[in-house]
Amino acid sequence: xxxxxxxxxxxxxxxxxxxxxxxxxxxxxxIAQLTTFPAATGGAEPASPxxxxxxxxxxxxxxxxxxxxxxxxDENHRTIGYVRKVVRTAQNKVELIVDYDGWFGWEAxxxxxxxxxxxxxxxxxxxxxxxxxxxxxAPAWRQADETAIADDDSVKIALxxx
Length: 162
Hints:
single chain, alpha+beta, 5 helices, 27% strand, globular
């Protein structure tokens, strides 16, 4: 009985659709994808690979004040450092300022970490796309044209598995 009630809808849909659609070439599909991406992001430039990975990790809004003081862990679950502050750069990118601890205090310095390379795991952050060696090699962060984000504001951060 239900199938018979859907029959008029199927007939109407078949009348509207063309009988035979023209095949879409790979080039036309690629051009269509390129033209639709900026419209989907509000006209912004295409996302970097780190930003694309972050979007696949289901970013969630988090209050900035809740990020301050959280430990940042490496792939072996060892603490790299602690979040000191959250800043916004002149290019409108969010960065976490992490106090890199170094090895027994040697080479300890603050490091600017893009929010795209970390993921939140409850009350800690995982450094997903920035290995410990990059923290060592990163230059010491110095306040320049970045502005601190207020504790009551929220930023989006990716989710990570434990």
